[in-house]
Amino acid sequence: MEQHRSHIYGVMAEFDTPDQLVHAVEKARAAGYRRMDAYTPFPVEGLAQAMGLKRNMVPFITLLGGFAGGLGGFGFQYWVNVISFPMNIGGRPLNSWPAFIPVTFELTVLGASLCAVFGMLALNRLPQPHHPVFNVKRFVHATSDRFYLCIEARDPKFHIMETVRFLQGLDPHHVSEVMDD
Amino acid sequence: MAVQEYPAPESVSRLQTRAFGVGAIALLLAIFGAMRSPGAFYQSYLMSFLLVLGVTLGSLGLVMLQHLTAGHWGIIIRRPLESATRTLPLIAILFVPIALFGMQYLYTGHGEEKGWLNAPAVGEGALSNFQKSYLTTQGPLGFYGRAVIYFVVWLGLMFIFNIWSKQQDVNRTDRALRQRFRILAGPGIILYVFAMSFAAIDWVMSLSPHWASTIYGFILVGGQLISSMAFMIAVVVLLSRAEPFSSILQPRHLHDLGKLLFAFVMLWAYFDFSQLLIIWSGNQPEEITFYRTRLYGEWGIVAVFVVVFHFFVPFFLLLSQDLKRNAKVLPKIALWLILMRLVDLFWMTRPEFTSSAVPTWLDLVVPVALGGLWLGFFAFNLKQSPLLPLGDPKLGEAIEQHHEH
């Protein structure tokens, strides 16, 4: 039995409409399941709230990236113009800060956006060439017209028979076991 | 008469009474000040006039922007915006004292520096031929004629958009009317900004006739958008204390308005900084005078104050999603920004008259007088029509309750 469980990634139910999926997620949360994920062809309104997704770290990482870019951009110009290679340009002070602002601004944006994109990828553990849900043949519909809820085996409440029965009670189109590999 | 849908709550009437009361008392004090020291009075008057003009014209711009973009944010504030634009007749009346009496104090320079009204014909301080032909009170396209044109443009746009909006409350499914809003809104925005750009040159930039900046009008327009959006945030939060807005206004609406306020703060900072950057890079004697008077001495302190409290502090506060959705904090930031608009206008106009950055008692009284009268008139306007545009095709969507956990 232990051996068998370790090969199961989870149980996945397939739904026809986004509303059914959101209801299924709400019921699964109410039944005590926590380790689950939903797969949809397009963003579904209310799904994130139904899943109880917490705020993530992306905004904070973006802020840090912005600060790093801005300080680095200004700092580098300051170092070049004041310390490394001081030059009198039209009698202006060496630290001619208004002239530094456009580059500082651009690097703030660059740092923030790079951190936003790569922070998001890292937190999602992407890129990930394979995922157990791909073992289910029917899952190809996740990119067109079907909506999936997968309750994962690492959920403490997970029990293969009971979870399958629970998902079948939600009026799905189909329920399949997802094998791990 | 049928029961009005979405009527303004009692608090709007109270606001009207109080605003008119405070405004009237301050106006009496201001008139007393005008008798004693007309020069100081008109300096304060110009700055206060620009503030109320800014809220009004910023609202006109946002009304047109909302017709172009049709966002939910604009449907929520469309009636307050329209009420603000209908104060334009008051603004036109408030301009009359400047045109009749104030010009001789405002556009005559101070000390050795002559203004354009009393510039010598030849020699040092004389205006160029082009300046002489533009900065003049003579002719149909002189100072007075142009002022009439600006007000005709703004009043015309204001009347058209308000009349159509009223029609839309009756003919709610009139598709041709919706189309007409959109067709006029685009050119309307261009007309508003063009007229304001020229008005900025005539009324404010001409305080220093030998100095010129092409982005000057845009700096004022950016400030006007801040004033208007900040005022709208304060108004919807005030309205949300009672029905009908208490069951309509949701955090997502404040979030949208807060995002726009954030964007306008950045837009204004961008315009303002562009001017500094170009003048700094050019380093020409006739251009740097603007910043020579404003970045050193007492005015330098005001400049740093404006940069920190008009830009950096609101910028970092408005970065936060939680604060933008917070009905307690967001209106405080908004009201603070309106105060900062006044400080910025103080910094833009006053250094042409004095090197002392200490405000006079008239700088406190005159803004309260003009602001109070304006606010009372706004509250009166707000009561005249339903608080939501009943014929807007997206009204249902805009006020739909979302489940926000």
What does this structure look like?
With 181 residues, chain A is an alpha+beta fold. Chain A folds into 2 domains: 2-55 and 132-179, Alpha-Beta Plaits; 58-123, no CATH class. Chain A contains 6 helices and 4 strands. Chain A has helices at 2-5, 18-30, 47-50, 58-84, 97-123, 160-168; strands spanning 8-15, 36-39, 147-152, 174-179. A 4-stranded antiparallel beta sheet of chain A has the order 2-3-1-4. The longest helix of chain A has 27 residues, at 58-84. The mean pLDDT of chain A is 91. Chain B is mainly alpha-helical and 405 residues long. In chain B, 73% of the residues lie in helices and 1% in strands. Chain B has 15 helices and 2 strands. Chain B has helices at 10-36, 38-69, 72-85, 88-106, 129-134, 143-170, 175-203, 216-239, 251-282, 285-294, 297-319, 321-324, 329-349, 362-382, 395-399, and strands spanning 109-110, 113-114. In chain B, strand 1 and strand 2 (113-114) form a beta hairpin. The longest helix of chain B has 32 residues, at 38-69. The radius of gyration of chain B is 22 Å and the shape is globular. The mean pLDDT of chain B is 93. Chains A and B meet through helix 5 of A and helix 9 of B.
